[in-house]
Every structure is written in structure tokens, then in C-alpha cells.
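>> received
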Amino acid sequence: MTENELSNIIIGLAIEVHKNLGPGLMESTYEECLFYEIANNKFKVERQKTMPLIYKDITLECGYRTDLTVEDKLIIEIKSCDSLMPVHNAQLQTYLKLSKMKLGLLINFNVKYLKEGIKRVINNNGVELE
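>> returned
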């Protein structure tokens, strides 16, 4: 399954979570529910996966963690805020770069219609999507 196919499925599952819960809850609630939906659909999904930083010849455990990582192909960062900010995009870009993954989803559940809160983020380090 390609990253694009996987992201389309995950977006559908996120919409299902949003339909059931609506906006206004904590990020951790949406993370737990989306984790449940993804795992229930038989995908490999990891919560709070550590993301080490390699600087020159050392590996630093700086406390970076992805909200959800699916099939080792897709990183999902979950927000519940008034609006997505450039720093949210930069955070996901950094995780994609560190993991060498190609695609991430930035999902803000604090919106009336979830389609308004979803942003696809592509690793701009020269990797191509399938």
C-alpha cells in the first residue's frame, strides 16, 4: 500500500472519530480514539514513538515523540487548537526528516468540519511519494 492510499484510509478513520466526538476535547482523547480505529482496522500503529536526533556522530534522545506512526510509512500529528500554526508544520517536517518517512498528516480536531483541519505534509528532503 502506498503512502497516499494509506493516508486516504487514515483520513477516513479520523473523520469517523470527529463525527463521534466533535471538536473541543483534548489531543490525547483524539489520539487514543484514532489509535483504536487504526488498530481495529488491522494496521500496524504505534503511539508516542520516540524519535532520536542524530547529530554528527552521536544519537541524542531529546524527547521527540510522534503521536501516531502507521505501518512505518505515515506520521500523524494530532492537534486540538484554534488554528494550525507554521510551527506545527515545522514539527511534522522535522519528524519526517528524522524518520526518513515521506508523508505525514497534521490533523486539528478542533474544527467544525474535519476536512478544514487536515494538512498533508510531504518530506521535502528529496524523497518521492509512491
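>> The CA atoms of residues 21 and 29 lie 9 Å apart.
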